[in-house]
Amino acid sequence: xxxxxxxxxxxxxxxxxxxxxxxxxxxxxxxxxxxxxxxxxxxxxxxxxxxxxxxxxxxxxxxxxxxxxxxxxxxxxxxxxxxxxxxxxxxxxxxxxxxxxxxxxxxxxxxxxxxxxxxxxxxxxxxxxxxxxxxxxxxxxxxxxxxxxxxxxxxxxxxxxxxxxxxxxxxxxxxxxxxxxxxxxxxxxxxxxxxxxxxxxxxxxxxxxxxxxxxxxxxxxxxxxxxxxxxxxxxxxxxxxxxxxxxxxxxxxxxxxxxxxxxxx
Length: 265
Prior knowledge:
mainly alpha, about 260 residues
């Protein structure tokens, strides 16, 4: 199985996979690189005056609202990325400790409960739950399906906020498009073809409406795409962490607990 093979490579210390393994376990680094490139692009747009032009031309301020929401969603993604990074480090440490010494899984009443010595985190809590379940059910096959479902939900946490934020930015962009077209078409109703001053004023209003429609659509599309990329990287890191947890528990924890249950009969 894929997660078992990846787990063996991680704990095996294969030098050929050292660089790839390092890149896989640095979701925070990936976020920082992506955000750095985004900030560099934003600095270039500011230098050439394009951002200022968008802010001035958008009288509805929908583009500014989109920018504020984008920053908020990015900070939420950073918070979740930091959590996943910490959980990833704790899971790898726990996996190495469990693989080196099965006494970390002791669950008998007369044996020291070394689970508490493992690094704190969701994976350690999952191992503790497995040890508790094994001690309560006694001998037999240890099924962790339901516990893994709960672990997956805990690892995902509020990652689904990314989809909500991306859709919101997209819809705000479409809202700006509609408002812009309304502003563009409104002067046509009272347009007097013989009044050149009114005609010129109407053309100015139509131009302003078109600018609102285009800038808000552009801001919504770009913001939505960038948010989706950030949360895609977050979901990928979360998925890798879950696969690591499955590998650790299936290879070392479940087998050791079943062996302890059988020997205690």
